[in-house]
Design goal:
mainly alpha, Rhopdopsin 7-helix transmembrane proteins, two-stranded antiparallel sheet, two-stranded antiparallel ribbon, 4 strands, G protein-coupled UTP receptor activity
């Protein structure tokens, strides 16, 4: 073994990773980089995420009401990101203290649970926005029925509950353990239960990431085909630009935050489960640890969606920053989607298509 390769490995000691020491008894990895990378990256995400999502929630609550369906999805997306970044100071301390967790087993379980709850709620809220945008562009009449704020609110409630229900086993898998004077907060579970955890994690990933990812890609593929067809009128041109921005932002979040994390985590878990060669295992471990902060970065990238797709949001944000006088609250519609007032007396019947329904409108946040 060359000197370069041997520098990657070390016996279990103060610089090794005791959190993952169950990988192989004779295979340890010097993860000194983790005790710098993770505290710094989580601290940056905390500052940026709170600074971006905090004002966003305030604007949605006090300056951008009433909400349409997409505004509801975006508010819940911002709420999910905010709840997550509020948990990061404990992880900053944990990794800065070199894997020492003094906050108790219950908080360890909750913080690890909150990470995946935010991650998959964000995925599903972005998927809801994508499907809603797809209906508005490709099936505007269906958008009148399925794009109501009441339905959006019920879907958001379902997202919170479904994701929480799927992640309940994580509360039983995640635990703490003691090694000398160090208390570890495991990201996975005990060594003897790791194979069961991999099966659980794979099922959750397929259901809460794989399926929404495919749905999002299909929706955006169909939207792109529709948007590149000739559309008359300036309003249609504005809708086209807004929709293309939405596609670009959401796909960027998936490409940077979600996809690398899930790929490297899957490879890492399989390498451990199959007891791969020690050198391969440690290379995979490094790549996985490097992509973990990327999954947290979605809390900072999601607000870009509101900035690029909402005229009223940008205007209210400029006023919040002191660039304009106060204005009364404005109706919030985030992506110029076809929408129908919640109190409309029009119903989805054959008679509703004979001209007596109100004309669909395209609002802008």
């Amino acid at each position: 073994m060359t000197s370069t390769e041997s520098s990657l490995f070390t016996t279990l000691g103060p610089h090794s990773d005791p959190e993952d020491s169950e990988v192989e008894p004779d295979c340890r990895f010097n993860e000194e980089f983790k005790f710098i990378l993770l505290p710094v990256s989580y601290a940056v995400v905390f500052v940026l995420g709170l600074g971006l999502n905090g004002p966003t929630i305030w604007l949605f609550l006090f300056r951008l009401r009433p909400w349409d369906a997409t505004a509801i999805y975006m508010f819940h997306l911002a709420l999910s990101d905010t709840l997550y970044v509020l948990s990061l100071p404990t992880l900053v301390y944990y990794y800065a203290a070199r894997n020492h967790w003094p906050f108790g087993t219950g908080l360890c379980k909750f913080i690890r649970f909150l990470f995946y709850w935010n991650l998959y709620c964000s995925v599903l809220f972005l998927t809801c926005i994508s499907v809603h945008r797809y209906l508005g562009i490709c099936h505007p009449l269906r958008a009148l029925r399925w794009g109501r704020p009441r339905i959006a609110s019920l879907l958001c409630l379902a997202v919170w509950l479904v994701v929480a229900g799927c992640l309940v086993p994580n509360l039983f898998f995640v635990t703490t353990s003691t090694k000398g004077d160090t208390i570890l907060c495991h990201d996975t579970t005990r060594p003897e239960e790791f194979d069961h955890y991999v099966h659980f994690s794979s099922a959750v990933m397929g259901l809460l990431f794989g399926v929404p990812c495919v749905v999002t890609l299909v929706c955006y593929g169909l939207m792109a085909r529709r948007l590149y067809q000739p559309l008359p009128g300036a309003a249609q041109s504005s809708t086209r630009v807004r929709s293309l921005r939405t596609i670009a932002v959401v796909l960027t979040v998936f490409a940077i935050c979600f996809v690398p994390f899930h790929i490297t985590r899957t490879v890492y878990y399989l390498a451990r489960l199959l007891e791969a060669d020690c050198w391969v295992l440690n290379i995979v471990n490094v790549v996985y640890k490097v992509t973990r902060p990327l999954a947290s970065a979605n809390s900072c990238l999601d607000p870009v969606l509101y900035l690029l797709t909402g005229d009223k949001y940008r205007r209210q944000l400029r006023q919040l920053c002191g660039r304009g006088g106060p204005r009364p609250p404005t109706a919030a519609s985030s992506l110029a989607l076809v929408s129908l007032p919640e109190d409309s007396s029009c119903r989805w019947t054959a008679a509703s298509q004979d001209g007596r329904c109100p004309t669909p409108r395209a609002d802008r946040l």
